Amino acid sequence: MKKKHAKNEEIEFYTKEYVAGENDTDSCVEMVPNIVPVQRPNPNAWTSFILGIISSVAWIIPLIGLPITIVGTVLGATGMRNKRSKGIAIAGFVTNLVFLAATIAAGVLEIIYFVKKAKKNK
Predict the structure, then answer these.
(1) Which residues are registered as beta bridge partners of 3?
(2) Which terminus has fewer CB within 10 Å in the chain: N or C?
(3) CA-CA-CA-CA torsion sign (98, 103, 104, 105)
(4) Of 33, 26, 70, which is closest to residue 48 (Cα–Cα)?
């Protein structure tokens, strides 16, 4: 135990000395480095999620919304196979699936509208 004086206060420092013998390094847990695996994000899951957000606006124009939602749905499905970021992959998959249905519905309604408009003009 060492004592040190600082600004009229007495501070005690406890020091412990270790002496390693020949066999101490074999069973010493402190000498093993702590290796923590770094989890990389799942790119398919995050891309699907971002495309799902973009498709929430893109469904209005079916020619733009259809490829975006199809790609996002496929990436979400492949992202769910991986354990990393599985929740994000599910969210992207469901969002893209919902807006894929909306895109198809909007496309069908636009086709019906233009067909009726063309028949009126004849």
Answers:
(1) 12
(2) C
(3) positive
(4) 70
